[in-house]
Amino acid sequence: MHGYDKATVRRLEQTIGLSRGAIFHHFRDKDTLFFELAREDAQRMADVASREGLIQVMRDLLAAPEQFDWLATRLEIARKLRNDPAFSRGWAERSAELAAATTERLRRQKQAGRLRDDVPSDVLQCYLDLVLDGLVARLASGEEPQRLSAVLDLVEDSVRHR
């Protein structure tokens, strides 16, 4: 894993087995390629979030971190989001699907009486997004998934209706 900034065309050619011409036939530049991968990832995460919630997305990360080799890249993304307005706009468009799925899931869970009603849904969503970002950072730095699972239990309990 080289991360976003070190993902040269040569490395992309070697990793995905396509020539430079084939890569740029489908993707006009590295950002476009990256955004397509991010879109696919966000779609998978949104599907899980819609059915089972954002905490389940995080549990899936813990259960099979080797399937999420983009974890370190997410840290680079956070830095790039702060420093590159065009990249930030593109990322926001691709992240909207996961946010919408999470918003809808929280709405349904709140209506069913399963979530705290003393905290606004947008605050709960921000809280869960912060936990996801922290989880990604910890996994990318080599934290043991078993320990983080207990933290997710605590997070899940903290958003449940009391």
- Net shape: elongated
Instruction: Return the CATH topology.
Output: Tetracycline Repressor, domain 2
Mean pLDDT: 82
Poorly predicted tracts of residues: none
Q: Write the CATH homologous superfamily.
A: Tetracycline Repressor, domain 2
What oligomerization state is this entry in? single chain
Radius of gyration, in angstroms, nearest whole number: 17 Å
| DSSP strand content | under 5%
Name the helix and strand elements from N-terminus to C-terminus, one letter apiece: HHHHHHHH
- Major β-sheet profile: none
What is the count of DSSP helices, taking H or I runs of 4+ residues? 8
CATH class: Mainly Alpha
The structural domain count equals 1
Overall strand count:
0
Distance separating the two termini: 43 Å
| Fraction of residues in H or I helices | over 70%
**CATH architecture verdict:** Orthogonal Bundle
Structural class: mainly alpha
Domain HTH tetR-type: 1-45
DNA-binding region: 8-27
GO molecular function: DNA-binding transcription factor activity; transcription cis-regulatory region binding
Protein name: HTH-type transcriptional repressor AcnR
